[in-house]
Amino acid sequence: FTIAATTLFSIASSHVILESPRPFKFAAYGPANPITEDGADFPCKIPPGVTKLEIDGSPTEMAIGETQTASFTGKAVHGGGSCQFSVTEGFEPTKSSVWKVIHSIEGGCPKANEGGNLNDGETPDKYDFTIPDGITPGEWTFAWTWVARIGGDPAEFYMNCAPIVATAGKKAESRESKERIDHVSKRAGFPGLFMTNMGEVSDGCSVADIQKQNKAISFPHPGDSVEHPEGTENLV
């Protein structure tokens, strides 16, 4: 048992997982792995039969409109790839939850200019983002999703989630009726989460052919907040 547990820890520690904002408690080793190819544990690597994620400590508070930083741990960055940060309302996401993309990283995530995996002493990159004004204060689930440049077989889609509380920023305006309507309008305008490599859950979308080329993808709807750590020349 000790040997098996040690082996699992070693494997899990080498895979990239979300570090900050602090994710929900990992139900098992699974969160270090991609979503299953049939999407059974989408969203957030929730094991089948589990309906509620457990919060690890306290949710991360994030002021709307102020700079936040996402960080990761692990060595298996698979040559980078493309990531999205998105949010959905509440702390109990389901397959029917509506995810709103707030930031996209096309290429170079979770590590830029990396040909494979990290060596000892190297760490994944950190990425700044903001909770945009179109998000109202309250409880949200934050998601990091990742399509690796160097994919496995079958093709992979990674997802980790964290509970956050969006708070009014320093420049927050008063909550008049018209402003609340504006917030709802802006939120409705956010692009939906790009989903792939999950069978019917992702409507049959697959980027396996692109991953076989060792290329990072450009998202069809990345939103207004986009960065390209490696430029755009090699995106597909």
Automatic annotation (TrEMBL):
- Here the segments flagged for biased composition (Basic and acidic residues) are 224-236
- Sequence segments annotated as region (Disordered): 217-236
- Report what the protein is called: Lytic polysaccharide monooxygenase
Which source organism does the UniProt entry give? Answer: Pseudomassariella vexata
